[in-house]
Amino acid sequence: MSVPLYQAKAELFRTLGHPVRIRVLELLQPGPKPVRDLLAVIDIEPSSLSQQLAVLRRAGIVVSFRDSGAVMYALSTPAVLDLLAAGRRILGEMLTDRGELLAELKVGAEEDRR
């Protein structure tokens, strides 16, 4: 029996619901990177990074391979870039809306003081 699409989507978003995993995906945007480069940028224990990479790999979001003895990671599909870009756009719109609301609240507060 196959999993309903909405359930598969929910699992994808659960997988993405960790800051280290998102940071790894951001770092892999330009192209494959060795684990040592990821460790140099992400302040995390090697074992913790390994666990997070394993979660991403099992979900099929990243792939790993060896290159000259180094373990490399890469995004499994360019669609991951689209997902990260969509997240940035959504956050930008949400923050813009909150900024406008904050401005309205400030104006209302000033009027209340008068």
UniProtKB/TrEMBL annotation:
InterPro entries documented for this protein: ArsR-like_HTH (IPR011991), HTH_ArsR_DNA-bd_dom (IPR001845), Metal_resp_trans_reg (IPR051011), WH-like_DNA-bd_sf (IPR036388), WH_DNA-bd_sf (IPR036390)
Signal peptide as annotated in the record: none
Keyword Transferase: no
SUPFAM superfamilies in UniProt: Winged helix' DNA-binding domain
Ranges where the HTH arsR-type domain occurs: 1-95
PROSITE patterns the UniProt entry points to: HTH_ARSR_2
Protein keywords: DNA-binding, Transcription, Transcription regulation
PANTHER family, alphabetized: ARSENICAL RESISTANCE OPERON REPRESSOR ARSR-RELATED
Name recorded for this polypeptide: ArsR/SmtB family transcription factor
Species, as recorded: Paractinoplanes rhizophilus
Lineage, opening ranks: Bacteria, Bacillati, Actinomycetota, Actinomycetes, Micromonosporales
